[in-house]
Design a protein that fits this description.
The chain is α+β, with helices and mostly antiparallel strands and 265 residues long. Helix content is 18%, strand content 28%.
Length: 265
């Protein structure tokens, strides 16, 4: 009998080369997770995620599924798997779902939050947990610019040259830029994201906040549909995948952001 298990995963991505397995034996989230799940399942498994986070990017709620023929109590897929995971990866929730529910193809939106320190001195205690720029930023202007990203658009200007997505057209559902406990939060929810898309958008919004781009110029960057028109890719340190949304009929349990996390809950 085939059983499909859904997982919600938290991790610090600093020591990993992103989610996806790679042929050169570098450490990836997928490879480490498949090993740990396989130890509990008693056989090799393939773990399929809702999306692929980049090197250095973190997660508070990435979802993934795998199939197994092994009968285990649901807590074994949490507590048991966690015993085989390194300290910077943790399963926070598991549930059995129908065998036609797919972590990637059934997801209707993904949400990311970028956390930025704007202090004059780099925040050493939060090293690799937040991004940093010492250049003064106008949050109001960045919020105004972020609204130009809403709707269905071609996001080629924010697309990495290594992106494997079939189409650069995505629907940006919501954006928000605001202050939270002395840090600047950039929130994005979209139907999907291109490779480096959030980091490229954050880099462009920082140009707006610092006065290097005005709203008209930012709009031109979007409409150009050309990566060479946009500012450089910003550092991955402060980027977190926060949530993956599914239709109610999928029966996927929603996990909440922890109270200690910066920004809106």
């Amino acid at each position: 009998m085939n059983i499909r298990i859904f997982l919600h995963i938290q991790y610090i991505g600093t020591n990993f080369h992103g989610w996806q397995k790679q042929p050169n034996n570098v450490a990836t989230i997928q490879e480490v997770l498949e090993y740990a799940v396989g130890k509990i399942a008693g056989h090799k498994v393939e773990v399929v995620a809702a999306g692929r986070t980049d090197r250095g990017v973190h997660s508070l709620g990435l979802t993934a599924h795998f199939d197994t023929h092994s009968l285990r109590p649901i807590h074994a897929w949490i507590v048991g798997v966690n015993t085989y995971l390194p300290a910077d990866i943790c399963i926070i929730h598991a549930q059995q779902v129908k065998d036609n529910i797919h972590a990637r193809f059934d997801a209707i939106s993904r949400s990311y939050r970028y956390i930025l320190s704007n202090d004059k001195v780099r925040p050493v205690i939060l090293r690799q947990k937040v991004g940093w720029t010492f250049i003064p930023l106008d949050i109001v202007k960045m919020q105004e610019a972020s609204q130009l990203l809403l709707g269905e658009q071609d996001f080629s200007s924010f697309r990495s040259s290594e992106c494997q997505a079939k189409s650069p057209i995505k629907t940006m559902i919501s954006t928000d830029v605001y202050n939270s406990n002395g840090l600047i939060c950039f929130d994005f929810t979209a139907s999907g994201f291109l490779h480096h898309m959030v980091r490229n958008i954050v880099g462009a919004l920082i140009y707006v906040g610092s006065g290097k781009l005005n709203l008209e110029q930012f709009s031109h960057v979007i409409k150009a549909r050309n990566r060479t028109f946009a500012p450089p890719t910003f550092m991955p340190d402060g980027l977190y995948l926060t949530h993956v949304e599914y239709p109610p009929q999928c029966g996927i349990t929603n996990t909440k952001l922890p109270d200690w996390f910066w920004g809106k809950k």
